[in-house]
Predict the 3D structure of the following.
Amino acid sequence: MKALAELKKSLGIALWFMALTFPVMVIRVNTIERVVEWRWRNMAFIGIGSFLLSFAWRLLLARKERGRGKTDTGDGTIPAVRRRLLAAPGIRQPALAALALSAAAFPFLFSSYQTNIMTTALMYVMLGLGLNIVVGLAGLLDLGYVAFYAVGAYSYALLNHHFGLGFWAALPVGALLSVLFALALGFPILRLRGDYLAIVTLGFCEITRLVLENWNEFSFGPSGIANISRPGLFGLRLTLHEATIYFYFIVLGLCLATLFVVRRLQHSRVGRAWVALREDEIACEAMGIDKARAKLTAYTLGAAWAGMVGVLFAAKTTFINPASFTFLESAMILSIVVLGGMGSIMGIVVGAFLLILTPEYLRAFSSYRMLLFGTVMVLMMVFRPQGIVANVRQVYRYRKQPESEGCAGG
């Protein structure tokens, strides 16, 4: 009976969809011969396709309900077997060694084009990890993250253009300027929460882009800044291929440093304060945590990584303009965090590689890439809202000391 009810619902949806698309997909007016053409075959395809998709969707939802509690749950826990496998030195250490060897050999085994793509993916890993501090750990919905990315890129481009400042000197400067901008913006807006905070950060993103696009005397407007210097290697003259490999290893080193620092932050006292802030602000404040300081710390640290990657982006492309820092970039970085798993470091890495590398290798479907991207995001939100790799919650248990040990110690 339940299956029959699902069939009836899917049939109703198919009929509704056929009626909705009837004027567009069936009726076509031939203005040359002044006749109306009726394309009933399109109607049949739409009806059959919508019925099958609706029925498959309902089957997946029913399967999800039946499997709830048997597989990964939305609270970030994973089965004990998988956890032991990930923690086993006999598996983890060889896997890490193989991964490190593959990363080191990658630019020597593949072309400059493939190395450039991988470099871009590593940069987005860093951006995703920076935004993960703000959104995934502290729970602050930031839609203007790309503004700090633009600050870092333009800081290096302008300093290099006017004063000849090199890459290594500009790298900390770009991060520092992004932190200063985050401090200036964070003090007034971090009292907001939820949708209001998202709207304000989105407005800041658009203000930054419009200023860069219209202030020609400062940022050279839509024309952008060209001939930005690449990173130097002790004054050596490198070919384009050699410079690509050298830059790949720079980004790889900075990405590994980012992974280490973000992991240490996540398991530190500050990281636990961010998680508490994300879960319940009132309870967090009642426990004695300075809410404003915790929010501002998360916001500025995330901005620091965005500024650093902005410097890397300017050095990689040697040309920047405001078109590179639109809201779509912020949405892409936020999608990496959501798709990978909010608060999960490994999830961010997996999400960045999927969202950056997959479109490059699916150029044959370039007309449908955004459609596929939207479909994947919808399916993820329905069937796995915790992300590809869910964050593992730390569980602390109190084990009572045996009485014999307590007496001996006394």
Remarks:
- DSSP finds 17 helices and two strands in the chain.
- Residues 2-58 form one domain.
- The CA atoms of residues 193 and 343 lie 19 Å apart.
- The chain has two domains: 2-58, 102-383.
